[in-house]
Amino acid sequence: MSEDFLWLALEETTSTNTAVRELVMEGRAREIVCWARRQTQGRGRLGRSWLSPEGGLYFSWAVPVGGLLPTWLQPLAGMAVLDVLDAEDGDFGLKWPNDILVRFEEDGDVVERKMGGILSEYLPNSPQGPHVIVGIGLNLNKQVMLLPEDLAKHAMPPASLAEVTGKSYEAEEIACSLSHALRQRFLPLQGEQMEQATKDLHAAWSKRCWTLGRKVRILRPNGDVLEGDAVGIGEDLSLQVKDAVGVIHAVAAGDCRHARLVG
Ligand code: BTN
User: Fold this and answer.
1) Against a cut of 0.90, is the pTM above it?
2) 23-82 residue pLDDT tens
3) Residue identifier of the C-alpha nearest atom 2 of ligand 1
4) What strands, in cross-sheet order, belong to the sheet with 215-219?
């Protein structure tokens, strides 16, 4: 039997994205949220694994996209995560295309750390119409101990929300807030105001995307490296990078590194 909305809270699963994908493909519900306290086979972007021990939130939302281009779910998810984090004391932002960052002062320097990431997947052929699965991993209470060699190794070293705010978090509460924020952000993207709503989302996302205005190094999926200044985000959500001779490249996918912050 199919339901309209399914909420699944798990102690442990392989991957919440995989769990909801199976349920969507079985036609179990139109919309599904699944969150877990641990994952044994968490997946990240570009085929990487996502370490998922206790202390994080591992969350997936499957939603029918209707006439909306599936790529819009990516900025929507980033903004929904910020809606939740902005209630906390900290300076939170995004790295193109889908990292959740925090900035704070450490030994007199302003540093940026990765607090979470988003992995969205498109299911064009699910029984109840095309769905997108938005998977969100957030470091809530994890103790992230960084050694100097770790700092050098990571494109963006990790941090957790608890380390930044000094508080501890209950995963279920954050999962509820996140589900609410995602659904609120999704409302204007359905129906007649869709076009205006995508423009508003583009503007809001660009404002919170710390990649813009920075020197970046992009590793493209084919292995090519592009270095330059991130000067804009296209209507198709590609990152516009101006190279050393002034040519602007539209980057649709890749791994993006920010140059270090100074001051
Ligand atoms: C990234 O590479 O930065 C994206 C990481 C996304 C991880 C989340 S955790 C919940 C969901 N289930 C998964 O297996 N991956 C996503």
Assistant:
1) yes
2) 999 999 999 999 999 999 999 998 889 999 999 999 999 999 998 999 999 999 999 999
3) 44
4) 248-251, 239-242, 225-233, 215-219, 255-258
Q: Token digits for 212?
A: 């813009």
In this structure, are residues 121 and 21 in contact, taking their beta carbons and an 8 Å threshold? Answer: yes
Extract the tokens encoding 213. 């205005």
Residue with tokens 């190094």: 217
Q: What number of other Cβ atoms are within 10 A of residue 26's Cβ?
A: 11
From the number of C-beta atoms within 10 Å of its C-beta (0-12, 13-18, 19+), residue 254 rates as buried
Ligand 1 surroundings by CB, under 6 angstroms: 15-17, 39, 42-45, 48, 50, 58-60, 99, 117-119, 135-137
> Which residue's alpha carbon is nearest to atom 11 within ligand 1?
135
CA 40 to chain centre: 20
The closest of 48, 38, 30 to 14, measured between CA atoms, is 38
- State whether residue 124 is helix, strand or coil: coil
Helix, strand, or coil (residue 68): coil
CA distance to 28, 97, 133, 216, per residue, from 225 (Å)? 43, 16, 29, 10
**Which residue among 17, 114, 174, 255 is best mutated to probe the pocket of ligand 1, counting the most ligand atoms within 8 A of its Cβ?**
17
The closest-lying atom of ligand 1 relative to the alpha carbon of residue 36 is 10
Pocket test for ligand 1, best of 43, 57, 140, 257 (most atoms within 8 A of CB): 43
- Could you read off the pLDDT of 153-185 as tens digits, one per residue? 666 788 999 999 999 999 999 999 999 999 999
Q: Which two tokens stand for residue 3?
A: 């339901």
